[in-house]
Amino acid sequence: MWCKRRRDPRIRDEIQFHVDQLIESYIAVGMSRADAERRAFLEFGNVAATEERVKDARGRWLEDLGKDIRYSLRTFSRNRGFAAVAVLSLALGLGAAIAIFSVCDAVLLRPLPYRDADRVVLISQMSGGDTSSISWLNYLDLRDRSQTFDSMSCAQPVRVGVTGLGPARRVDGRMVCANFFDVLGVRLPLGRGFRPEDDEVGAPPVVIVSDRFWRTQLQADPRALDRSITLNGRTFAVVGVLPPAFQFFRQDDVYAPIGLSLVPGSGWFSRASGFGLRAVGRLRANTSVEQASRDVDRIAADLAREYPATNAGLGGKVERVHDALVGDVRGTIIALVSAVALLLLLACVNVANLLVGRNASRQTELAIRVALGCGRLRLMRQVLVEGLMLAVAGGLCGVLVATWLLSVVVAAAPPDVPRIDEIGIGRSSLALAAIVTVACGIILAAFSAVQASRAREQETLVRSGRTAHRAARSTRRVLMAAEAAFAIVLLAGGGLMVKTMIRLNAVDPGFRPNHLLTARLLLEGEAWREPARRMAFLDDVTSRILAQPGVLNVGLTLSLPIDGSYWDGPVTVADKTMPSQGDVPTAAFVPVSPDYFDTAGMPMLRGRRFDRTDSAEAPRTAIVNDGLARRLWPREDPIGKRLRFGLPGPEKGWEGDWREVVGVVGDVRLNGITASAPPQVYLPLAQLPGDSVALVVRTSSDPAHLATAVQDTIQHIRPDVPVASLRSMDDLMRSAVAYQRLSAIILTVFAGVALVLAAVGVYGVAANAVADRTREIGLRMALGARPTSVVRLIVSEGLGTVLIGSVVGVVIAALGSRAIEHLLFEVTPYDPATFGVVVAILLLTTSLACAIPARRAVRVDPVRALRAD
Amino acid sequence: MGANDRVPPELLSGSVDLLILKSLAGGERHGYAIAQYIRASSGEVLALGESSLYTALQRLLLNGWVTDEWGASENNRRARYYRLTAAGRKHLAAQTREFDLVVTAIQRVLRTV
Amino acid sequence: MAAETPKSDLLQGTLDMLILKVVALGPIHGYAIALRLQQMSREVLQVQQGSLYPALHRLEKRRWLRAEWAATETGREARFYTLTPLGRKQLGAQRANWDRLSAAISGILSTAE
User: Fold this and answer.
1) Of A421, A71, A503, A477, which Cα lies nearest the Cα of A246?
2) Who wins on pLDDT, A563 or A132?
3) Cβ–Cβ of C107/B1 closer than 8 Å?
């Protein structure tokens, strides 16, 4: 209030004071008040005019700004096509940028919700270049011998069934060492963290739940700490609730002390098996990841010397949890960010191109304004206001575009994208949007101002802007070439991804994925300890689902194709000298039901299927896939040969009985669609019924229709058996290539937008060139040139520029396409066919864009054309 | 101080007519000689631009304070000569008094402490 | 065409300087500035309000003057102007220029024919 009063000059008050003083002075010399007033006003003159002149003298910044805005709006509304295309270009560019940045921000940039998150590292075991889980005993040694960590803890991912809270469910959980939350530096808003005594064998089972679990399953009960929940049939007391943002690699719902698993004499106390265990550590202050790596390597080398049987060749790997988390998506996101930057650049160039054209045709208008005394500064400001208005309108529409694009991205994104649920247009996205918008506006305005400053009053007035047109045309050609180059890069990116998708869709996965419904059953806990009971239940489920209408066949398997989660290990063949330890073939072990192969649609190449005779008590049998058969017995009949799991030698490990090969099936891709089929050994489920079994149902129609029926059937038999991952195989296949799909969708959209922008730019230049040369065209026509040859002339001029841009674009694209190399499948980053098609598409589109104004020109009456200025 | 170091244009323009009339008081001159006279007699302080000189002369002609006549210059070139009229001489006398009055008034203001 | 009078032009050309000079004597409002100028010049200089106020605000904008609302001795609020250091420097420069020019013009006008 005070400030405003102070700044407001109160011009009228000041003048009023003056007039009053005059009146007083006349009254003082004896005039009547009326006469004095008359005299005073007469002497002072026009009060309002004086007030206006004072305002002029002060300068009217705000009023002028308002005038500029109104003036801009008027020119935009006179030239709606220009304004619409400019705003749309910027909206697409900015919208895409905001959306991609929002993804980047949520996934890559935001720190993890741990205290000093950059000191929290993941420690994995390395064997033969792959990370693997770390065994409990190795972890203990690592923890006790390391010198670069403040503290260390460990965690093991598990899936657990939750019963007693509505229908049985399976949730993600983690078994953790008691100090886990301390190492991460997480404070629990409700309850307590784990205590060392919780880890001891025989301690009462306790659980810490996620905020999500607390809200959805415990109804955000503030007294949740008095409750217990049943996990895998065992009762756990709830001792704590985690903060909402907390997560460790995935959204786990329950955390229990790892001590519960450490049953003496179990596999936990062998250095050979890790059960998914990973160590996390908090680095000492001022300790680098490299120092920690050296520390861990040293310990690994010591252990390899001490326990050569299990630890030979093992190494360690230390990486920040954040890096480990985003590792897979970093490349994809960086590729998308580069693409979106290019798109934004293209949008700006396009608008700049439009501005040049508009300024050239406005040259006369600008010159008149300068001649009429509109200061050059005012004119610059006008241009700046115009640029900013375009950018702000583009930015606002861009936020809408971003909202839409984000919903598309999130819907298409693979569910394992870290922190995907945090993606949204947040404060930082909006701040970035504002900055980029204003930057675009200023760049455009500066560009426009340079153009406008060429308005040399007299010269331009005299020559009526024809020279200006010519100067603008060369600028526009450069911009057009730049647009073509950018468009080629984006088109190439989109093209490579489209080709990748085509190749991916053409992959033969080794089975028939359509009309296949999959689900996973979890049979954990005391009640399912007996394998026979598990088998009986599974048989019951199979026969009941088979009885459902629309069900053609039902199979059971431990590992679903494509899914990527399967057991593998070394295979030893009987009666054959096996190669040295490092070269022992590794194969996936997949227990399946007799009907599995037919249900999945896998071809039997030799021998027989499993059947009822392959029971738990029957001699051990196995079916191998074609690839393994060729590798193990290249020129022999594999039927009747014997193999077993584990390394050669006297030590007989887990399920180490000899098995007789009874059949050969076709190769099936297990680990996604892109990875070739690994060697596979199938065995009868009855001989090894796991506690987690996948159900495969072949249906006669859309498998989604049967999902409920299948779930109901299982729940009807045993309501406490959780059914998870109920989805069609098509769905599973889609999510296997989700990164490629997402990148393909986004890059194709970008490529399409780029093509449209480039076409608009080329059209604008061509239309302008044609308008400038109406006389010339008229003359040619009058002299008998055929319309087609005139059109060809104009199109070829435009194409020349586009071609130059395309060549530059191809070079940039060839250099840049390595950024998406990791996403490509059976396509090289410099695929000549793709590049050729892309260039052809651009040339075709732009020649169309050139031909439209050219055709219009040749239809003009030559006489009228000749009269044109 | 930039622009403000220069002669305020109004200051000079108010006295241009006067200076031209004064330069013709001693006899006829052509335009170039008028400018030379003003420059020299002001000790190079006052420099009259061509355009303001000739627009001022037009104004003086229209008001009937000067007349013009073509004649030969010192180096035998044809030149336009301006001469003061009787009305012009009267105007010069009146305006010189007025000028002195205003300058004195301004000096008085400036000398007030 | 209006006859040029040196008075109006001279005043217009020196108005900024005169205002700066008057304000230099102490904080003062617009009405009093006009009044002081009139008194100090013994009624020779009559400033039109239509020029005075735009000039005051122009000088304020150039930071040669500072303005502030304050009470007059009669208790009414008026906008008082004071000279800034920048304005004082400006006054000096303009005055030197004025002295030089007016001396040159007066010199010419006072010479006998």
Assistant:
1) A421
2) A563
3) no
